[in-house]
Amino acid sequence: MSDSVRQLEVGLGERSYPIIIGRGLLGVRDLTPFVVGDRVMIVTNETVAPLYLAQAKGCFPGKKIDSVILPDGEQYKDWKTLNLIFDALLENKHSRKTTLVALGGGVIGDMAGFAAASYQRGVAFIQIPTTLLSQVDSSVGGKTGINHPLGKNMIGAFHQPEAVLIDTDTLETLPARELPAGLAEVIKYGLIRDQAFLVWLESSVEAITRLDKAALAEAIYRSCACKAEVVSQDEREGGLRAILNLGHTFGHAIETHAGYGHWLHGEAVGTGMLMALDLSTRLGLISETDHRRAEDLILRAKLPAKPPEGMTPDRFLELMAVDKKNVTGDLRLVLLQALGAAVITSEFDSEHLQATLGYFCRTA
Ligand code: NAD
Ligand code: GLY
Q1: 137 Cα: distance to centroid of ligand 2 (angstroms)
Q2: Cα(90) to centroid of ligand 2, in Å?
């Protein structure tokens, strides 16, 4: 095991938990102190299982380990696939004294977490995220759930893990397209809350994309630190936590329109952040110079500049109306008032929003 293991804490009183970050941790780091009961059910998928399932079992010495291998893809983040986890738990007679382990990307983490939130009214779970996106975002904070054909992540629960184990070596096998998707969420933290991190990213984005170990480790640590701090202050998104959704209302519309699995979540967030930046500039919240600086960083991360071909402003508005950030009836968006400072607002006129949508949906 590397000696450069770093640890953060998500501070939630007696439900606080560690985020352990380092290289060579999978199969080596003993996670049994975070296991409730003497049984473990590892939830993973058909891509990750051959790569890491055997190794992951090494984290649970002395425990009786079962596993369930789900089909791979955002299109399987649904009731039918969720039920496979319950089938495996019941067939193997797991009681309430069991611990689920999510081994994989954000799809696995969200589904295993939701299964843990609801199996026998709630059991323990541990996150072992293996994509950049899940290491910097989805494994931390306890949002769990599945998609509905009418909207992303519409069914779910808040359920915090007992621990998050991030072995950055797992990123070595990540398909090339997944890295920019994770980087979108990394850049998000700089834009919404941490200007110093944003400046560091401007000089490090290429190192991250070529999987430079030190740059990746730093990006993951600083991202998790930002998320842990926000979640500790506002676990259930009563206010502050909503800033983590920069670009997500536009992005969820893109994902739903394209059909789950066609656009990666992080890609849609990347384009969504470009749209939020555009609207922030039109509203006079940020300068043209800051807009171009942020846009340049997002494009250097190799994220898509435009929504899918054929997506119209009306289609955006229809899908954005379903997004759960609008439950009050008003469309609320996360915008920027400076680089490193987000604002959550429904105070924008529809003309400006239409102008942004029109600009991004233009065909020429
Ligand atoms: P993903 O889970 O679909 O993983 C991407 C792909 O990489 C999959 O094919 C997966 O099998 C594969 N993979 C995973 N680890 C690998 C590895 N180490 N080597 C090789 N292949 C590997 O996608 P994602 O980007 O990790 O997560 C996206 C999901 O996360 C979305 O459903 C999104 O809604 C959710 N999300 C949730 C939160 C939250 O707070 N709960 C936050 C952000 C995103
Ligand atoms: N990804 C948004 C959140 O965790 O709140």
Answers
A1: 7
A2: 30
